[in-house]
Amino acid sequence: MNTIIIGAGISGLVAAQELKRQGTDFVIIEKSNRAGGRIASEKIEGFTCDVGFQLLNPAYPAARSQLNLKSLGLQAFDRGATVWHQGKQITLADPTRAPHNAGGLLHTLKGQDARAALEFLRVPSEITLADALDKSQFSPLMNRTIRTFLAAVVADEKLSCSVKFARDLMKYFVLGSPSLPAQGMEAIVKQLLEGVKESIRFNTAVEKINEAPAGVEVVCSDGSTLTANRVIVAADPLASSYLTGINKPATGALTTWWFATSTRPTESRYLHLDLSGQPLFNHTAVVSNIAPSYAPLGKHLVEVSATGLRNDDPQQIAARSAQILGADNADDWKLLTTHHIEHALPIIGADSNPVPKNNKMTLAGDIRHASIQGALASGRKAAN
Ligand SMILES: Cc1cc2nc3c(=O)[nH]c(=O)nc-3n(C[C@H](O)[C@H](O)[C@H](O)COP(=O)(O)OP(=O)(O)OC[C@H]3O[C@@H](n4cnc5c(N)ncnc54)[C@H](O)[C@@H]3O)c2cc1C
């Protein structure tokens, strides 16, 4: 055996696709009974609920090179956001894409915010995102908008990731429109599984990696031991740190509530941010306005997402979401499911673990760049 890949998330699947292309033999060892790791979609009463709301940005270079974006049938959100501030909606749109809404963004990006944006690009890369925003001095409205939005993107209310990582993510928001595949986020996984599914050994966890004279030895939970020339560790960040011995990264949690409604709460195709004094969540959106295939005909699907593991009363969540979306009420809203994802994303600090250099063991996964871009790019690099 040439290569053992640990983990059938998207990073492991991309590594497998690359090895297949090269004609190198490999096996993927996957702990669970399915591929895709943190990308999954559930079908509930005809609705598609991604397991934790997430988006694919088609500007990710690794998505462009590793995925067939056309066949995913991507449906893009409108660029910008609508914020709920002092009891009213303000739409901060990208003026190049939505000239009718340009007033909101131009209003807030003039003067202080234009200077702050320049300062944000100049602050030293080693400081945290929170410190960078403090130093940049955006206006109070823009400051809260950016913090609320990015906290959900990095799964950390404290914004303790490095500003370098945040700036890199923000670059993609400028370059592309975050989108949903017509058949749900899991369509990405289905695409990456083509031609490599038969090489996955499911329901088997790797417990230990040992050096062996001719390469590596991998000890599995079913008592078997596999040997190969090398191993690609593409597990989630906590499992990867356990298996490779690198420092355990901090991780952030996310909660998503999914509601079905029979009246359309709003025509809006924006993410709506809750900037009220006591926000119950970070954002909400009528997902079926963007991707109608996520809901059965005549029905609508609303997502509400918050950082952390949250156990709020879904009725309260629905009522606040309806309010900030500008809907009459949430009387006919039905909770479909709630997803609590404890280790949604690793928090990428400035002092993140250096990737160990070892020609028998390569680390993949989103441990260095907490995103689909990071996972896809790492899988490809590890295989080459
Ligand atoms: C709620 C949520 C929202 C997100 N939003 C976005 C977004 O909007 N945009 C974006 O770009 N990214 C987003 N992400 C991040 C993105 O989904 C991840 O970066 C990416 O899926 C990570 O893929 P991976 O292959 O590195 O890891 P994983 O998906 O974690 O895959 C690792 C695999 O390894 C397996 N495994 C673990 N331990 C072992 C072991 N010992 N032996 C064998 N197998 C093992 C696991 O079962 C899993 O299948 C979000 C993530 C979550 C959870």
TrEMBL record:
Signal peptide: none
Pfam families linked: Amino_oxidase
GO molecular function per UniProt: oxidoreductase activity
InterPro entries (alphabetical): Amino_oxidase, FAD/NAD-bd_sf
SUPFAM superfamilies: FAD/NAD(P)-binding domain
Highest rank taxon of the organism: Bacteria
Ranges of residues in domain Amine oxidase: 10-384
Protein name: FAD-dependent oxidoreductase
